[in-house]
What does this fold into?
Amino acid sequence: MITRRNLLQLAGAGALASGLAPRAFAQGSATTSPSARGVEPAAARQRYGYVPVHTLNGWTLPWRMNDGVKEFHLVAEAFEHEFAPGSKAKCWGYNGSTPGPTIEAVEGDRVRIFVTNRLPEHTTIHWHGILVPSGMDGVGGLTQPHIGPGETFVYEFTLNQHGTHMYHPHADEMVQMAVGMMGMFIIHPRGGEEVPIDRDYCFLLHNWALHPGTWRPDPAIMVEFDLWTFNSKVFPAIENMVARTGERVRIRMANLSMWNHPIHLHGHTYQVTGSDGGRWARARWRPETTEIVAVGQTRDIEFVANPGDWAFHCHMAHHTMNAMGHEIPNTLGVDQSGIEKEIREMLPGYMAMGRYGMAEHQEHVEMGHMQGPPNTLPMMWGKGPYGNIEMGGMFTVVKVRDQLARADYNDAGWYQPPDGTRAHRVSDDPSFGRPIRRNA
Ligand SMILES: [Cu+2]
It folds into this structure.
């Protein structure tokens, strides 16, 4: 059978292909999408010149070569997105996902990116942090006409840098980003890296005003958000990051939310090694356990993996919670036993909580005592091997194991600490041990 693709191949491509370039992409030519999954780091460096990034809960945009140019095709569109089982929303993004697929390329590459707009309003794409000719910068009205509904524009430029970058609309930006339009654009250095990386993770930080009981993120909110996400997912729906003991891991973080996020890793002192300015000179690397990723910034951290299950989360305590009422009265220490009965007469099923703290929330929700509004996640949840984790939002686990295949990215289960290395109960008597106490 002679297809258009065969015909191009038979014709010897060259002149024909370049003349048809913009349309040729849509003809279904072979595409490539390098993955680190199943490819050992050394083999990946041989095959691709780099170890491909692993986008948390996401994917890498396939590309194809057309006469020496790497061609990508983004489609801006609306779809239903799930933050975690129990909460979905009508979101906007690219190629059916929020964030959009990660674009991955190498310093020196010439890239051509088609952008088709299937949204009900116009859009553009800005290549955040990437040095492009002014007319390719994607600022609607300033550097180009807007991409109208149904239209396809093409961007083309050469990548003269490396680093962790982003893409997002620069058209009705407040609305389009609030409903999920963003993605990462990773450029690997040409010729490899002096300190090689074994695993390279990436994700975007974002916040969503998905009010309890609703199905559309509210773009008008500036401060009081309901959901805090890594790659548009909340704990425990965020993938764990796995590594083998001793591997060098990089985590690339980018922030297009409305808040700064201090990102904290347990069990390691990591080095902050890069940003959208590329991988910094080694003299500029600095040891931290918490690094603020400010709005509009990207940060790369690197560490040599220590065995264990290590919490990895934003350190703003409200950013590790899900949908919570922000205007609830403070009930900490308040005896509500009388009022609970009276409120129940008006609100059947009402449950007074919070007198002793909020940890009981997770149990009540899971036992079905408390019914939240539809499409609304519990404030905190997640189970570990020893009980409730009582987290939500921007939280996941870095799981490091001695025996993990180098190209294995599957969840590693729970860590078994060696004997004698886990905190344990020695007494249930509050007067135990008579420790020295102030003013006692
Ligand atoms: Cu945060």
